[in-house]
Amino acid sequence: MFASLPLNALRAFESAARQGSFKVAAAELAVTPTAVSHQIRALETWLGVPLFERLPRQVRLTDGGERLFRSLHGALLDVTQSLDSLRPLRSAGHLTISTTPAFAALWLVPRLGHFYAAHPHITLRLDTNCAVIDLHQDASIDLAIRYGHQPSPGLHGIQLFDECFAVYGSPTQVAQARHQTPPLISVHWHNSELYAQGWHAWCAQAGENWLENAATIRAYDDEHYALQAAIAGQGLVLASSILVSQSLANGLLQPYRAEISIPGASYSALCVPGRERHPPVKAFFAWLGQAAGGSKPSAAR
């Protein structure tokens, strides 16, 4: 049944598709780029369809190549998991999570103790980066927690929660803001569309004329820094209801006019289809859904 499958060519294709480069795939497989190119040419001939577009200084998957990669990558993951389960001396499960520094520091890390207690055999590594990682290309990432309005086609995931933005400050700053224009704390986001005009929208909805009164605006590059500034009493911050939750629970921050908020986007946990069956990933998805309030899985879109 499987005797005619070109296994070496399929392995070369999977590596090249994931890495987006014949040269990098060659280094991973300890062969020459020419050998990788020949294997992929042979696979294309065997299939009768092109798998890559050869462009100047890069290669790009065709539609057929995308379909094959998604199926093949998941199948190889399943094989790897089966082999790992048969080893007499199994190492502890390893799990790499990609998310933003702010989400890691303000929501995820304070709750991870519960995950470690339930799964002491899993070693978890956080990869914190504001850049969006292509999970199909970077196999070192098991699961990513992302924020935004757009769906993530071709990925398996769960929606964790929607957020809104409201105004928070230290108890002293909240009390003073009822009588005088407070300093305002803002964030220069890497994805400015998600935060742009936030203070203007909040002030318009609240009927506050702080911006017209030339309020001092203190800007930071990360929500973590902005919340720390608010905790230190440097002003009021417009912040995510998700990221501020721990500071509210600890009494470090209080809402100012809690009835006023503006909509945000959604947080989702995502992985390459098939990877959700990997035991550490499956365990983290289950824990994360519970920690976020019982989110339900969604099919890959």
Automatic annotation (TrEMBL):
InterPro entries: LysR-type_TF_proteobact-type, LysR_HTH_N, LysR_subst-bd, WH-like_DNA-bd_sf, WH_DNA-bd_sf. Keywords: DNA-binding, Transcription, Transcription regulation. Residues 5-62 form the HTH lysR-type domain. The keyword Cell membrane does not apply. It comes from the Bacteria. Belongs to the LysR transcriptional regulatory family. This is LysR family transcriptional regulator. It comes from Pseudomonas benzenivorans. The lineage of its organism: Bacteria, Pseudomonadati, Pseudomonadota, Gammaproteobacteria, Pseudomonadales.
